[in-house]
Amino acid sequence: MLFLLLISFVSGAIIFINGFSYYTSSFEKRPLQREHEALKPSGKVGHGLGIIGTSMIIIGVASYSSRKRLKMLSTAGNIKDWLNIHIFLCLTGPILILFHTTFKFSGIAGASLWSMLSVVLSGITGRYIYIQIPKGLKGNELTAIELEEMRREIQGKIIKEFKELNSDILNAIDKIITFKKPTKESTLSVILSLLVDDLIGRRKKFSRLKKLLKSYGLKHKDLKNLVKLEEQRYLIMRRIILLDTLRQIFKYWHVIHLPFTIIMFILLTVHVLVAFILGYLWIF
Description:
The protein has ten helices and no strands. The longest helix is centred in the C-terminal third of the chain and has 58 residues. The radius of gyration is 25 Å and the shape is elongated.
């Protein structure tokens, strides 16, 4: 997935660098530049970016929706792989369309762009929530009981492999890597608590854990292995605590994301029809 995201951002960077002087100049000065005929929304390059970007979004949405809803495709690959392709296409497509608009945000095209960006932002949020909900190897959601079994298995492995750790050390470790459930279970507070924990909190906790383990004279190799196991245990505990809440939030997200997508396609269709009526047929 990271490789696909890299392709998306590299593609955008290449387009921006090649048209840097054009995209960074004022709208009044652009018609005077030699790149204008090619990069303007109706130009060969600019129009092409819009068509390719739109096609990528349509393919991304249609393929993933079909995989989820059609029985004949239920065994066609892992749903996670389809989701990754969906994200890649529906992220790269908007990037290309953004350059197609030459960063003009007015009129029908502007409304279509804003709706598209809303869908992208909603999609990124949904993806973040989705990866917080634990899955099995086949993409099926794990239950709280299965997670608890995984936690106990890791706990047992730690006790077995690190017999030199007495109860005092284990209790000290537990105090450091405790995840506190947000007092308010609103969507925003839960997502913010997860973001803060992923960006700052977890790093601080495991930095403290490493210092603690070093103070007990644990060897570097053993310390590294123990921290890895504790990270796995910590994430499982966090998922157990937030499992029901995250599932509920994900259901709400589906309710919000779908209307955004429908509005985007309606505005996109209107924009394409207007362009077609006005005779903007790209290279044809």
